[in-house]
Amino acid sequence: MRVELLCGKNIEERIKAVAAAGKLSRTKGNVFDVLDSCEVYEKNLGLVKRIIGMGHKSIMEHDYFVFALSDVTPIVEQTIISYRLTSFTIKSGREVDFRSVGYYVPTFKDVKGNILGNNDELVTKYKNHMDYLFQEYGKLVDAGIKEEDARFVLPYSFHTNIIMGLDARELERLTNELLFGKLSKIDELKELGNYLLDIIKEYIPYLEDHIKGHDVSSDDWYDAYRTKGKIKPYDKVELTYYTPKVDDVIIESTIMYHEQVTKKEAHQILLKLKKKDPMVMAKMMDDIKHSNEQRELEQVHFQFTIPISLIVLKHLTRHRMQSLLIPTFVPMWDLDNYVIPPSIRNSHLKHYKEVQKRNLDVYNTFKESGVRDEDLIYFYLCGTAVNVMTDMNARSLEWISRMRCCTKAQWEIRAIVSEMVKLVGEVAPLYKNLLGASCIALGYCPEGKESCGLINRLEEKKCKGN
Q1: In this structure, is residue 256 part of a structural domain?
Q2: Residue 6 in contact with residue 66, Cβ under 8 Å?
Q3: For residue 184, is it left (φ>0), alpha (ψ between -120 and 50) or beta?
Q4: C-alpha to C-alpha distance for 244 and 264, rounded to whole angstroms
């Protein structure tokens, strides 16, 4: 692992901005007068420390950093993108051959955190197994399976690279979790936490005291209630809750917003409008579709339960404006549950199942050797199935559908989001017209030269009057 700070090394200028933010609300003059009063670094740093020490941490959000993370695993990747206020760019696994990227090798410990006496032997077995999985990935690629499908047999130990951006407040939260929370039991995540702490000590002098020795509450409390049974993947995507009368709520919210009336009054106005024009709700919904603000859509919510593969989960997680419940990596999920890509089901199913079974067998051997779950997580394969639950408003669902219903989207996430759109359409027929890829919903494609060509076929069909 290698972690470097790319942006945010100018300490004095950054501290000046944070100090000015701290002084602004109680200092005479405009913002530039306040900035002019923040010329002495030592005074600025002392002020920032004092304000943050009082619990007023919002000023930390004006201090922003960009990190480069090299040779980390998807364990790190999935962890940081779950922090909703981070920004990230991640190396694609869809069109890149991962045979030579390398993989993480843990030090194997028991449940008490002690290194096992046969660690060297386990490391050798682990490396042999990882080499095998990468070789099987290569065989699938050489057999004509696309990289995005062949990767379903890759272990979650493979190396990837990330650009991560976040403000100081979120950096404090992330670092504390990595160093002192439940995540700290995963050595790789604690290693990342230590890298971040070293950077904090060098470049963020007001933050170190808020991390060193700070304890983070754990989620272990639920262990007393755990049934310990095997986890069964959901059969399908389900819409488990939605705001009643979605279409009506959206339109009435629009009227309330623009007319500044009560909900009851908005309802009466809508009834009058419908008497004049029975199609008024459809017309208003179409206008909302083409508007920029669309705040009305944030007034309704949808809750879904979703079965998804581990590697495709990040396609969903990276959409920040949702409330997503994802199980933690520990305790271990059932490795016998996995997603099978259609291309593999049609041609290499036996081979694929053999790889999954061998991985499960090796995992069981390590488990029986007393290896703790925190070190076994690297036996997860990219195709391992997991259940998630999410709640999102109509605006977020609209945006997700733009990205994930596109024919260029990865096939599994496209199928999932398409089913979400279908289910929502059954309870909100007018709102459904806002959903889908840009070419379908809006009549244009933002991909330009990279377009799949569907927009051209749609335009030709429209010109012919079909």
Answers
A1: yes
A2: yes
A3: alpha
A4: 16
Expressed as residue numbers, the domain containing 258 is 244-295
Q: Which amino acid is at 466?
A: N
> d(Cα 315, Cα 404) in Å, to the nearest integer?
9
Report the C-alpha gap between 153 and 142 in whole angstroms. Answer: 14
Measure CA of the first residue to CA of the last residue in the chain; give whole Å: 56
Tally of structural domains, the chain:
1
Q: Rounded CA gap, 224 and 391, in Å?
A: 27
| Dist CA 248 CA 161 (whole Å) | 46
- Across-strand partners of 309? 385
d(CA 44, CA 31): 15
Cβ-contact 239, 303 below 8 angstroms: yes
Helix (H) or strand (E) holding 7: strand 2-7
Tens of pLDDT, residue by residue over 259-299, are 999 999 999 999 999 999 999 999 999 999 999 889 999 99
User: Does 346 fall in a domain?
Assistant: no
Torsion of CA 107, 187, 368, 352, to 10 degrees: -90
Residue pLDDT, tens place only, 55-110: 999 999 999 999 999 999 999 999 988 887 788 888 777 778 889 999 999 999 99
Convert 271-280 to b/e letters by CB count within 10 Å (16 or more is b).
eebeeeeeee
**Number of helices and strands in the chain (H, E):** 19, 8
Tell me the one-letter amino acid at 255. Answer: I
The amino acid sitting at 121 is E
- Tokens, residue 339: 């997603």
CA separation, residue 19 to residues 14, 358, 431 (Å): 9, 57, 46
State whether the Cα torsion 105-109-113-117 is positive or negative: negative
d(CA 367, CA 333): 13
- For 32, counting Cβ atoms within 10 Å of its Cβ (0-12 exposed, 13-18 middle, 19+ buried), the class is exposed
Q: Which of 101, 152, 141 is nearest to 356 (CA)?
A: 152
Q: How far apart are CA 136 and CA 126, in angstroms?
A: 15
Classify burial at 260, counting beta carbons within 10 Å of its beta carbon; exposed 0-12, middle 13-18, buried 19 or more: exposed
Active-site residues: which are they?
Answer: 404
289, 442 contact by CB (below 8 A) = yes
For residue 272, tell me if it sits in a domain: yes
- 440 Cβ partners below 8 Å, 6+ apart? 405, 458
Say if CB 65 and CB 195 are below 8 A apart. Answer: no
Indicate the pTM of the whole model. Answer: 0.90
Residue 267 lies in a domain: yes
